[in-house]
Design goal:
two-stranded antiparallel sheet; single chain; 14 helices; 6-stranded parallel sheet; alpha/beta; 10 strands; binds glycine
Length: 348
């Protein structure tokens, strides 16, 4: 099934049409502390949201947990949501993940619409049907695959984001540019991130989402080719986890640094073209800066990679590239190769 993704600048009209299509008996809007102010206030007087009820949970990934989920379920129950009610998820990936899971499980599933308000959620989290929460100290440990009725993408929301958050989402766009055979990478590498021209970004974003949709359509449950979307994430997740106890970095920054390491492995193990790797790495270094690790951190990082849920039998699982769009899934690397990739990130 292909999920419906609507790109629009007539947000009210698109939302109204999507709600009408669902024909719900009640409408609920899920937001976090931030989007409840910054985003909900912009839409609360829409005619199509008359009578809709706002549910707010605390922001940030640490609240993508059972407590927030219980709050959503409890509110839906107390306010007498039925199987024909609709939940609109208004926010970043934390909201679309948790809200999607709440909707997919309440009374065995009610309608939900994703309205991503961050670049990261537009290009990745809100599209493709992954929903869930963190549990037992592990990210996205509990969840289901369930598509939103519709994902409504209006890049106007991006005006609320700072440059760091835009760059964080942009890293997933770079990933999409690398895992496709379409000529998507070159424009991404020549985009001026100091200006972030939203019109130009919107065009590249549309193509980027199509790349993801195309892969998800072929393998919705991540049994094979969807693993292409994990490119940059084996190192990336370990960087993100490592930084949590020091100076946390945004997800997309961890992915960008992960892309550097996994491009290095792609060159030495899969013959990925050095020239393309170099251009991409130069862009990442110029825009995302340095990731401050030293050799003494390598074992901890490798240990974190060994706990990644993509692994089978504790063997670290990588997605690597032979060339743009030429994916090699289920690849391994020795500890020495991983350390060389980390050296390359620090010095390359
Ligand atoms: N974020 C990767 C995926 O949706 O599969």
């Amino acid at each position: 099934m292909k999920q419906q993704v609507v790109f629009t600048h007539q947000f009210e009209q698109s939302l109204s049409e999507t709600i009408a299509k669902c024909n719900p008996d009640k409408v609920f809007i899920l937001a976090d502390d931030t989007t409840a102010h910054v985003c909900y206030n912009r839409i609360k007087d829409f005619e199509c949201l008359k009578g809709a009820q706002l549910i707010t949970i605390p922001n940030s990934d640490i609240h993508k947990d059972l407590t927030s989920l219980t709050h959503v379920w409890t509110t839906l129950q107390t306010e007498k949501a039925s199987r024909y009610s609709l939940l609109i998820n208004l926010g970043g990936g934390m909201i679309t993940d948790l809200g999607g899971f709440a909707a997919a499980t309440f009374k065995r599933g009610i309608y939900f619409i994703n309205v991503p308000t961050t670049l990261l959620a537009m290009v990745d989290a809100s599209v493709g049907g992954k929903t869930g929460i963190n549990f037992g100290g592990l990210k996205n440990e509990i969840g289901v695959f369930c598509h939103a009725e519709t994902v409504i993408i209006d890049t106007t929301w991006l005006q609320t984001l700072d440059n760091e958050n835009l760059l964080s989402g942009y890293a997933e766009m770079l990933k999409h540019g690398l895992i496709t055979e379409k000529a998507a990478l070159a424009p991404l590498l020549s985009f001026d991130t100091n200006i972030f021209n939203l019109q130009l970004l919107a065009e590249m974003l549309k193509e980027s989402v199509e790349i993801k949709e195309n892969i998800v359509e072929q393998d919705p449950h991540e049994k094979h080719i969807r693993k292409a979307l994990n490119f940059g994430h084996t190192f990336g997740h370990s960087f993100e986890a490592w930084s949590m106890t020091r100076k946390p970095i945004l997800h997309g920054y961890a992915v960008a640094f992960g892309i550097v390491c996994e491009l290095f492995l792609s060159v030495i193990k899969q013959g990925f073209p050095t020239e393309t790797m170099r251009k991409t790495v130069n862009f990442i270094k110029a825009n995302y800066g340095d990731f401050l690790i030293s050799c003494s951190d390598y074992d901890t990082l490798i240990d974190l990679m060994k706990h990644d849920k993509k692994n089978v039998n504790s063997t670290i699982n990588f997605t690597l590239l032979q060339d743009l769009g030429k994916i090699s899934i289920n690849q391994t690397a020795t500890d020495d190769e991983i350390k060389e990739a980390l050296d390359f990130l620090r010095e390359g």
